[in-house]
Write a structure and sequence with these properties.
Layout: H1 3-12, E1 14-21, E2 27-39, E3 44-50, E4 55-60, E5 64-73, H2 78-92, H3 100-104
InterPro entries: CBASS_pafABC_assoc_protein (IPR051534), WYL_dom (IPR026881)
Pfam families: WYL
Protein name: WYL domain-containing protein
Length: 105
């Protein structure tokens, strides 16, 4: 999945329909609201609100098999999503960023 496509969805605040491959190779489909693309040494991670899970999720860009930009914008602003994520992580005592060992897998 090209990072330009992901960055466009973030910039336009548009929903993405993802075909995502987990560590075991199983593919799932989901609609997400992408709001950040984070770069690590070994992986790029898309941070998004997942409609299926009703929660924030991190998606390794190299595991996104397909992403389709949807016509509609997501209902909350990107900045509001990032602020909500920070509050959620702070309240739970977690770091804003995913654990590094989960990225290395």
């Amino acid at each position: 999945m090209g990072q330009d496509h992901l960055r466009l969805a973030i910039r336009l605040e548009r929903r993405l329909y993802l075909h995502y491959r987990d560590a075991g190779g199983r593919v799932s489909q989901r609609v997400v609201w992408p709001f950040a693309l984070v770069y690590f040494e070994q992986a790029r991670v898309l941070m998004a609100w997942c409609e299926q899970r009703g929660d924030f999720r991190n998606f390794r860009a190299d595991r996104i098999a397909q992403a389709e930009l949807q016509e509609d914008r997501y209902p909350r602003r990107r900045r509001a999503l990032l602020q909500a994520l920070r509050r959620t992580r702070d309240d739970a005592g977690h770091s804003l960023l995913p654990e590094t060992d989960s990225i290395d897998r």
